[in-house]
Design goal:
Length: about 325
């Protein structure tokens, strides 16, 4: 799989390798077989591995996840796709009440190697229920691992690591970045839950994940023209969080801005800001700031660009942080 690939192709390759390496790996989801998924992430897999391993499921998200739990109990390693982010809510009870709790309920004797793939967030001009950012729900739920790649290399290797995990993993795929290309190396270079410093800097730390990493890199490049060096950290894992990498970065720069698409109110940024304030208080030169979506239902596609955090909103937060 090494070479320049889109995120979509990198994910497809990860699924293919997982199917090849473990006969107990099975894929399930709406239209993932003959169609290859609405984003073509599973394109060609049913043809090569058969309908018993790449399964076109009914339109029933609760049933998809419930069946995956049953398969995991029987020794399989299911990978299920939720077709769009907003469709996950019918399966929410299965995920938080059963999937996340089974390991603890069985006192550690039962493993739940289930990966739930969810294309999430906005920016594709979709209709209602197709652009949700619900990561905080799952990160708040003990028993779930929650991760989100931002580039092709991480998409490929993090998905393979997620599928190999004996714990349930919510794998959030930034759908508007599916067609972004990048180099995919021939091995994973980080653990599934390690953060990555993707750009070094000295004046402030931008913390992001998924679709907002690219936005923060663009903001850092623009800020450099004004002589400001911004460090960009790709969180990669939302639960557990690699706080060590975050704290070391913030202690170096003295300022932090957390950026995500989800609404700022009670979003991932709230927990990150609180923890960094506790751990880095004597190193901070300004409050930890947050940039995100508005506390409102996701808007119609014609105005979604006004809702999504962009380069200007990130740079405005940088200005405010540096003004202290």
């Amino acid at each position: 799989m090494a070479g320049q690939l889109s995120i979509a192709k990198a994910l497809n390759g990860a699924l293919r390798k997982s199917l090849e390496n473990d006969p107990k790996t099975v894929l399930m989801g709406e239209d993932i077989g003959k169609l290859g998924g609405v984003f073509r992430i599973t394109d060609g897999l049913q043809k090569d591995f058969g309908e018993d391993r790449v399964i076109d499921s009914p339109l029933a998200e609760s049933g998809i996840v419930g069946t995956a739990i049953g398969l995991a109990l029987r020794g399989y390693r299911p990978v299920v796709e939720i077709q769009f982010d907003g469709f996950v809510y019918p399966a929410f009870d299965q995920i938080v009440s059963q999937l996340a709790k089974m390991h603890a309920r069985a006192l550690g004797h039962v493993k739940m190697p289930v990966t739930v793939r969810i294309p999430y967030a906005g920016g594709i001009g979709a209709v209602e229920h197709h652009s949700e950012s619900h990561e905080a729900y799952f990160a708040h739920t003990a028993g779930l691992r929650v991760v989100s790649p931002s580039n092709a290399h991480d998409a490929h290797w993090m998905l393979r690591q997620a599928i190999e995990s004996d714990d349930p993993v919510i794998f959030l795929e930034p759908k508007r970045r599916y067609w972004d290309k990048g180099e995919v190396g021939d091995a994973a270079d980080l653990g599934l839950h390690d953060a990555r410093i993707v750009r070094a800097g000295t004046d402030a730390t931008l913390i992001a994940y998924g679709p907002m990493v690219k936005t923060c890199l663009e903001a850092a490049a623009a800020a450099e023209e004004d002589g400001r060096r911004l460090e960009v950290v790709d969180l990669r894992s939302l639960s557990p969080v690699d706080f060590r990498t975050l704290e070391e970065s913030v202690k170096r720069t003295g300022r932090a801005i957390v950026v995500h698409e989800a609404p700022v109110f009670l979003g991932m940024g709230a927990e990150l800001a609180a923890r960094l304030t506790e751990k880095c208080f004597y190193h901070l030169e300004a409050p930890v700031l947050r940039v995100g979506g508005y506390y409102a239902p996701y808007p119609p596609s014609r105005v979604e660009e006004a809702f999504l955090p962009d380069l200007d909103r990130v740079l405005d937060a940088v200005d405010r942080a540096l003004a202290y």
